[in-house]
Design a protein that fits this description.
The structure is a homodimer.
Chain A lengths: L6 E6 L2 H11 L12 E4 L4 E6 H7 L13 E6 L3 H13 L3 E8 L5 E6 L5 E6 L3 E3 L5 E3 L4
Chain lengths: 144, 144
């Protein structure tokens, strides 16, 4: 698994309130984002704001469940479905907790989640709409 | 506040166990790190593993307190003490919760923490031992 972080996703209660903070208070500019999620393109990593209910569902967690829904996730994007499967094979062999086995997603990609030993959730994803540049950055096509 | 993310810090129960996972399972290489914390230099952002007790203390939180200690933090590093103060003045004026007013730190820097509207903790820090490159990446001097 390459030494890269693609996204940090912050779960939020109210997307408009969160955007008002990052845009209005911190002065950041929103990148083109599909409905229901807001992306900020930072220095080599994307910050995503996403309602708690969607993030929790995406990682097979639920607020109040055990292990607790952590409210955020880290994502590592790769260039193919095969690479996603290969990473899951490795971490599974080493006994990592698989929160969500990799599967096709509603947004047209392929992803799964595992936990590190302290319960920090990592999503390993292939998003066919995004390109991974040579320096590890994500290039999000502007049409979606 | 520039649109940059400098560090993601994951609180861990057992530093050796966490390092064994990131190094041994994911295959990542550790960067030169001071005692008690382990850095990984990713694509434009640093991932830090730090014991929960240290991270909680650093952000003026404690496991079990309200608002709950979240177990992770996001950091935005800047080039001077004055820039740290300017960012805190802005977010305070907009009513953000200040978890720890900026102050000199034990590691020779200057930092503070605020929360976004959903309680995600941001540290704004000046670390005189680190250089912020033009593209927003951090260059950690190798002597400490």
């Amino acid at each position: 698994m390459e030494q890269r972080l693609s996204l940090v996703t912050l779960g939020v209660e109210d997307l408009q309130r969160a955007v008002a903070f990052y845009e209005g208070v911190l002065g950041w500019k929103i990148a083109a984002s599909p409905p229901g999620v807001v992306f900020f393109d930072l220095n080599g990593v994307i910050l995503a704001l996403w309602p708690h209910r969607d993030l929790a569902q995406d990682m097979n967690a639920a607020p109040g469940t055990t292990p607790a829904y952590p409210g955020y996730s880290l994502a590592h994007n790769v260039g193919s479905i095969e690479e996603v499967d290969a990473i899951f094979a490795t971490v599974k062999r080493h006994g990592a907790k698989i929160d969500k086995p990799p599967a096709k997603t509603s947004w047209g990609g392929y992803s799964g989640y595992f936990s590190d030993p302290d319960g920090h959730r990592w999503e390993i994803a292939h998003n066919p709409h995004w390109t991974i540049l040579k320096d590890g950055r994500i290039w999000m096509k502007r049409d979606g």
